[in-house]
Every structure is written in structure tokens, then in C-alpha cells.
Design goal:
Blueprint (H helix, E strand, L loop, with lengths): L1 E11 L8 E3 L1 E5 L3 E2 L12 E5 H11 L12 E3 L11 E4 L2 E8 L4 H6 L3 H5 L7 E7 L1 E4 L3 E5 L4
Parallel strand pairs: 5-6
Antiparallel strand pairs: 1-2, 1-6, 1-11, 3-4, 3-10, 5-9, 7-8, 7-11, 8-9
Length: 151
């Protein structure tokens, strides 16, 4: 089954505990993950991706409005059913990602807003981790296509 969305946010983690840096475009490679991100390296967690609808649901539960970069994800899509989609492929232009697992919320979420850590736990609201299958340059506004069968 195919699901379509739009890429509405790109961000990287600079070194240290600094705020996320939002970008209009970025290169993501099999060798290093997200260019410029402090966590860039090969492995199952090269890219983190989150759905805006899930983020808004968690914030609404708490009665707060927080910017999406508070979650510290690399990519924000308008809406995708990410829960339990390990093995699904996500295509953005030439870039192909494989979902490797859930992005578990950490204590930094609680520091950002009391209750946020727990609000992100249901239904994989905190997003997913991905491995890069095909490298590519991506831009805000591109179409995002997720295939559950990896095709």
C-alpha cells in the first residue's frame, strides 16, 4: 500500500546541546546520513522522521504549542501512518529510506515540556528511525511516498 505526504520540515542537530537548525534543502547519503547533523554516521538511525499530525496530537494532549524541532527529528512530513512500519520504504525524490524502528522519546522531551515524553509514547508519535538505502538531495515541499512492502 502506498501513502503520500509532503516534506514540510528539515532540521539538523548542531554539535552540543544547541537548538536544531532548520534548512530548506539537505543532502542525505548512505555513507553519512544527514549532511551536517552531529549524529551523521552509518547505521539503523541515520535519519529521524516524524509526522506533523502525530506531533500536534501529542501537543494537544498537553495543551501546549511547541515547534516541531523541539522533538529533534531531522525530517517532518505532513502526515504518514508511521506506527509499526519497520521495513517500509520512504521515497523523497531520489532519496530512499528504510524504516528501522521507533524513535524513542528521551528525557530532553520532558525538559522541553512536562508530560511530553509520555505524550509521545503512544502510536509512535515521536516518529521513526531510518537507514539510507539510496542517497539524495531533498527540498522542502517535495512529495513523500511510503510503501509498506518496501517497493
Amino acid at each position: 500500500m502506498l501513502h503520500e505526504s509532503a516534506l514540510i520540515g528539515i532540521a539538523i542537530r548542531p554539535p552540543g546541546k544547541r537548538d536544531m537548525l532548520e534548512l530548506q534543502h539537505v543532502r542525505i547519503t548512505r555513507e553519512m546520513g544527514v549532511e551536517g547533523d552531529k549524529r551523521s554516521r552509518p547505521g539503523k538511525r541515520q535519519v529521524t522522521l516524524m509526522s506533523l499530525s502525530s506531533w500536534q496530537q501529542a501537543c494537544a494532549e498537553l495543551g501546549v504549542e511547541l515547534h516541531w524541532t523541539t522533538r529533534r527529528a531531522n525530517l517532518l512530513v505532513d502526515q504518514l501512518p508511521l506506527q509499526e512500519q519497520v521495513g517500509a520504504h520512504i521515497r523523497i525524490g531520489d532519496l530512499v529510506l528504510e524504516v528501522t524502528g521507533e524513535t524513542d522519546p528521551c528525557k530532553r522531551m520532558e525538559e522541553a515540556s512536562p508530560g511530553l515524553l509520555e505524550a509521545l509514547k503512544p502510536d509512535w508519535r515521536g516518529g521513526v528511525t531510518c537507514r539510507v538505502i539510496e542517497s539524495g538531495d531533498i527540498n522542502i515541499g517535495q512529495t513523500v511516498i511510503m510503501s509498506n512492502n518496501g517497493s
